[in-house]
Amino acid sequence: MKRKAFGVGRIPDYNDFSFNCSALPGGGCLFELSADPTEHNELGAAKPDKLSALLGEMAAAQEKVFSPDRGLVDKRACEAATGRYGGFWGPWIGLTAVGEGGGEEGMKSK
Questions:
Q1: What b/e readout covers 55-78, taking b as 16+ CB neighbours within 10 angstroms?
Q2: Which of 76, 83, 94, 106 has the fewest CB atoms within 10 Å, i.e. is most exposed?
Q3: Extents of the domains making up the chain
């Protein structure tokens, strides 16, 4: 499966996460990174056994991952990261949202 091409002279938008690998029939994506470092040619449909084996290895590894309870998700942290800090985490306690979804300025101090 080919993802959309960027075109000659265009820079790819690596922040475009609209391509959802987990929604594909195999449950993931498979790329040959040495031949396709920008991940435009998805090979999961052509090599379902390889994709399945790799997903199995990931599931086995995931069982050994330490994932502590980090408490409740605070939506304001995400709003501050996307609106105020350009996609990076930063302080959000004491900030209020500016408009719907953080607006152009993101969040401002109370």
A1: eeeeeeeeeeeeeeeeeeeeebee
A2: 94
A3: 1-67, 75-109
**Phi, then psi, of 83 in degrees rounded to 5:** -90, -40
Q: What is the DSSP string of the chain?
A: -BPPP--TTPPP-TT-----GGGSTTSS----TTT-TT--B--TTT-HHHHHHHHHHHHHHHTT----------HHHHHHHHHTSTTS----TTEEE-SGGGTTT-EEE-
* Cβ proximity of 42 and 3 under 8 Å: yes
Which residues are paired to 96 by β-bridges? 108
Residue 54: other Cβ atoms inside 10 A: 15
Please state the pTM of the whole predicted model. Answer: 0.49
pLDDT at 104: 44
Tell me which residue of 22, 23, 33 sits closest to 55, measured CA to CA.
22
Give the pLDDT of residue 53: 95
